[in-house]
Design brief:
- It is a single chain.
- It is built from five helices and no strands.
- It has helices at about 1-15, 20-25, 30-35, 50-100, 100-115.
C-alpha cells in the first residue's frame, strides 16, 4: 500500500501541475486519502498505458533489488556478528588459558623458540 501511495503522488507531481507542500508530503497518508477522496488519482488513467506499465515495472524492479540488497546486507551483518561472537568466545578462552601459570610458561617458551 505504501508503494502505491508514493507512486500515485509521484506520478501526479510529474504528470500534472498539482503542487504538494512539504507538510503534505510529510503526512503522506492523509494526502493520499484526499487524492482518492477527490478522485485525483483518476488523472493517472490519461497516461499512456505502455508508459505507465513501464514506470510501474521499473519501480517494482527497483523495490525488489532494494529488498534483495537489504536482505544481503542484513545477512552480512548477521554473519559478521556471529563471527565476532565466536571470536569473542575464543578470546575469552585464550585469556582464561593464559591465566594458568603453566600455560604462560609454555607460551613464553614457544615465543622464545620462534625468535
Amino acid at each position: 500500500m505504501r508503494q502505491e501511495i508514493y507512486v500515485t503522488i509521484g506520478l501526479l507531481r510529474w504528470y500534472t501541475n498539482i503542487n504538494f507542500t512539504d507538510s503534505m508530503l510529510i503526512n503522506i497518508e492523509k494526502t493520499y486519502d484526499a487524492i482518492v477522496l477527490n478522485h485525483l488519482n483518476s488523472i493517472l488513467l490519461n497516461i499512456d498505458s505502455d508508459e505507465y506499465n513501464n514506470i510501474i515495472n521499473m519501480i517494482n524492479d527497483a523495490v525488489l533489488e532494494t529488498k534483495d540488497y537489504l536482505r544481503s546486507f542484513a545477512g552480512q551483518i548477521r554473519s559478521t556478528k556471529q563471527d565476532y561472537e565466536s571470536t569473542n568466545f575464543d578470546m575469552e578462552k585464550i585469556m582464561e588459558t593464559l591465566q594458568d601459570p603453566k600455560q604462560i610458561g609454555l607460551v613464553k617458551e614457544i615465543m622464545e623458540k620462534m625468535g
